[in-house]
């Protein structure tokens, strides 16, 4: 399915051109949100870079950060963000089996009580835009206040990203497949 706005393959802005080149090196392709949104709103590039940088500085472990983002994106139906999270999972050598079981996090033995609490919080927040006292108290038994704020911020950031991509019909770029191919080539060498 094509995005609602035609991707801009050759932007005029030099900074966007250089970002396209960096994306090709990092992902093997230029990300569609960059071609659809950023190419039309170059001033958003700096904001998005800062948000991504801030996301990386969050102290929660990488696996939990990715799980919160991927579950949020699955709930919202953002194919691009799910694909990006799967790609990061492969790149960071995390267990894809666990990510494939996110829909069953409440009952799957792959998830710890700590992970279940974070995922339940992210799910309820995404679906209801609020959480019950019981959900919050369960989260509090497994995380300190800073971690709770980090999970809340990650969920909000992922919802923001989803709300940019979904209305514009920005779907998967096949990033996970590209990353798996590159990883396989590295192992074969």
Describe the model.
The protein has 189 residues and is mostly helical. Helices cover 68% and strands 0% of the residues. The chain is built from 10 helices and no strands. Helix 4 (62-76) packs antiparallel against helix 5, helix 5 packs parallel to helix 10 and helix 7 packs antiparallel against helix 8. The protein is globular, with a radius of gyration of 17 Å. The protein starts with 13 loop residues before the first helix and ends with a helix.
Give descriptors for this structure.
10 helices; single chain; globular; mainly alpha; 189 residues
Distance between the termini: 35 Å
Name the beta content range.
Answer: under 5%
For the sheet with most strands, the description reads: none
Number of helical segments with 4 or more residues: 10
Helix content, binned percent: 55-70%
Low-confidence stretches: none
Name the structural class: mainly alpha
Overall average residue pLDDT: 95
Number of strands: 0
What Rg, in angstroms, do the CA atoms define? 17 Å
Spell out the helices and strands N to C. HHHHHHHHHH
Coarse morphology = globular
